[in-house]
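Good morning,

Attaching, inline, the backbone tokens for the sequence recovery test we're adding to the shared suite. The designed sequence is right after.
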């Protein structure tokens, strides 16, 4: 990875999109950066953390995204430039504050970067966050290249200060996590101290003498922003003066469009208008290019945001019947999921009535024959030795023994695998962070309606601090009958082990006080049991004890460091299968270990027709030794 603080004006470096955003923030003179980890946005703050000491930047992993934005806003109120980064789910969390911040305005440049995850590759949902900009009347920038990711972020600070409000920058997975060349700019010599001018009018959305004043001022600023956007260098047209087909695109869609037009050799017929300032749209610019073609194709991820807003402009022209629009509404482009060059190629080919084959039929046939039977299909699953697998196994066994058809509510994180075979299909709900606990508190109060099923809510240690505490307090106060299971693996594991309030270091590795989950729960007078998930029998028995202790909120903390971190320290056991004890397909267990327990470290030897251990994957946790009916899986302690 290049040094993000290199003062090499004009030289190019290969950067990930998120690194480019961080470099743009540094070039823009950022003083405070805050975030909550969430793919695909995580690397923005991680990169800034590496520059924190050298550039005197305060960097913080906040407890959740709402607090992160509030921390950044605090810096802005004192005149400092600040940035907050989050994924689309996080913007939902921060929106309560954002929907007031837009009305109060800001002082120092304030940039909110939201990284959407088309197709929900590592998310509980697929969401287009651009609608927040329109709903809240805030400026929105969308980088289409890695260079723009840097340049737009840098410019966003100046724009924010010019309009005295927050500026949104939207990235997507294939911008944030891909790499490309980025030309570095100058690093500023930052001066000035933080100072909150108490003589200024308050930063408050409430105006008792003129109730709608703040909203009126916000609407008035849209005209100023639109005028600025009319001459923005981030809006670019390429192609013939009068195109037969005009593509209007933004963000990642621009890269796909350029490649598609090139592969179709249609550069002389198809024009591409890349819009980098997607809200408010530069009306004059849009009208100019609408006048050049009667066929318009929109390429964007995820929703028809750009498409519908351009159509509004076209309607205002009073010539709505002149154009033929193609895009998500017409079915030429999917209104969900990621796009790719093939998506755009197929759309252009259909509109222009041309044929295109990405590869010859004979080549395609030979490639299918070559790989047939040689590609191993691997399901999405928990890692070898993951303590969550052991916890879900213990939950499954305990609920079976309890016999009351218990319900397990879930949450987003590694333990979201509890929806499928890796977690033995235990989760029955999965929504936003902390929602599993809120749902459990509700179910735990349904006894007056004849509800008798036990309820268990699962969440991770990072999620506990992020969103579980209010719902947990609600459960205690309302005397809700449920069990909160905290899967504590000592970090925000799903996004790369970023620290949270339960660990003893901060974003820059400095020692900080940690908050003990067990003590916090006990302070709420909640019964708490702490268990090691690698002890399957003990964990199962602990669940049974809590299931029998009915009528109140109680907590089980399943505590074991993430296996990916633990294996770097010490392997607990050497694990192997005693081939003499393993009866294979004659056991009667129907390959229980590899078919049901399913740890990736356990494999089926097709030649010997018996179970085996994949030594390259097994981390030596020894949990699987407890599930073999023949005791054929052996563990030996490593000194």
């Amino acid at each position: 990875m290049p040094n993000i603080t290199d003062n090499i004006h004009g030289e190019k470096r290969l950067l990930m999109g998120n690194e480019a955003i961080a470099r743009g923030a540094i070039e823009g003179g950022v003083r405070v950066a805050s975030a909550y980890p969430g793919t695909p946005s995580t690397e923005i703050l991680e990169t800034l953390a590496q520059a924190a000491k050298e550039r005197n930047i305060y960097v913080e992993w906040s407890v959740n995204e709402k607090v992160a934005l509030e921390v950044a806003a605090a810096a802005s109120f004192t005149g400092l430039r600040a940035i907050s980064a989050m994924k689309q789910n996080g913007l939902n969390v921060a929106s309560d504050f954002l929907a007031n911040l837009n009305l109060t305005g800001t002082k120092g440049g304030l940039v909110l970067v939201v990284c959407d995850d088309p197709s929900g590759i590592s998310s509980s949902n697929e969401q287009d966050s651009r609608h927040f900009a329109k709903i809240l009347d805030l400026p929105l920038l969308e980088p289409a290249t890695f260079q723009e990711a840097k340049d737009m972020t840098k410019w966003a600070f100046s724009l924010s200060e010019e309009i005295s409000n927050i500026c949104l920058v939207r990235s997507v997975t294939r911008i944030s996590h891909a790499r490309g060349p980025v030309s570095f700019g100058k690093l500023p010599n930052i001066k000035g101290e933080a100072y909150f001018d108490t003589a200024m009018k308050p930063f408050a959305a409430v105006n008792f003498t003129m109730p709608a004043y703040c909203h009126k001022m916000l609407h008035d600023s849209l005209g100023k922003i639109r005028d600025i956007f009319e001459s923005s260098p981030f809006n670019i047209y390429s192609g013939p003066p009068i195109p037969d087909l005009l593509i209007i695109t933004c963000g990642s869609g621009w890269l796909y469009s350029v490649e598609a037009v090139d592969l179709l050799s249609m550069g002389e017929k198809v024009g591409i208008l890349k819009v980098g300032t997607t809200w408010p749209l530069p009306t004059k610019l849009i009208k100019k290019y609408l006048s050049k073609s009667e066929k318009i194709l929109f390429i964007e991820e995820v929703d028809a945001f750009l498409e519908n807003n351009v159509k509004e402009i076209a309607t205002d022209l009073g010539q709505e019947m002149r154009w033929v629009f193609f895009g998500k509404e017409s079915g030429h482009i999917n209104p969900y999921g990621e796009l790719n060059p093939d998506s755009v190629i197929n759309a252009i080919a259909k509109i222009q009535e041309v044929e295109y084959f990405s590869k010859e039929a004979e080549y395609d046939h030979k490639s299918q024959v070559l790989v047939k039977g040689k590609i191993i299909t691997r399901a999405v699953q928990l890692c070898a030795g993951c303590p969550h697998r052991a916890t879900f196994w213990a939950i499954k066994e305990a609920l079976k023994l309890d016999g009351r058809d218990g319900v397990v509510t879930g949450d987003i994180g590694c333990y979201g695998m509890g929806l499928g075979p890796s977690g033995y299909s235990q989760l029955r709900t999965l929504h936003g962070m902390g929602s599993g606990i809120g749902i459990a508190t509700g179910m735990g109060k349904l006894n007056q309606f004849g509800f008798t099923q036990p309820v268990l809510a699962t969440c991770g240690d990072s999620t506990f601090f992020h969103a579980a505490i209010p719902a947990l307090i609600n459960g205690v106060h309302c005397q809700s009958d449920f069990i909160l299971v905290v899967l504590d693996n000592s970090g925000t594991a799903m996004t790369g082990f970023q620290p949270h309030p339960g660990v003893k270091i901060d974003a820059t590795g400095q020692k900080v006080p940690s908050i003990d989950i067990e003590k916090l729960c006990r302070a709420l007078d909640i019964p708490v049991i702490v268990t090691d998930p690698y002890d399957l029998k003990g964990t199962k028995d602990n669940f049974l004890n809590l299931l029998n202790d009915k009528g109140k909120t109680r907590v089980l903390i399943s505590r074991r460091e993430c296996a990916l971190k633990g294996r770097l320290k010490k392997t607990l056991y050497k694990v192997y299968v005693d081939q003499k004890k393993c009866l294979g397909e004659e056991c009667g267990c129907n390959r229980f270990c590899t078919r049901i327990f399913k740890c990736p470290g356990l494999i089926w030897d097709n030649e010997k027709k018996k179970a085996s251990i994949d030594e390259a994957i097994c981390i030596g946790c020894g949990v699987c030794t407890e599930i073999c009916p023949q005791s054929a899986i052996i563990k030996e302690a490593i000194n």
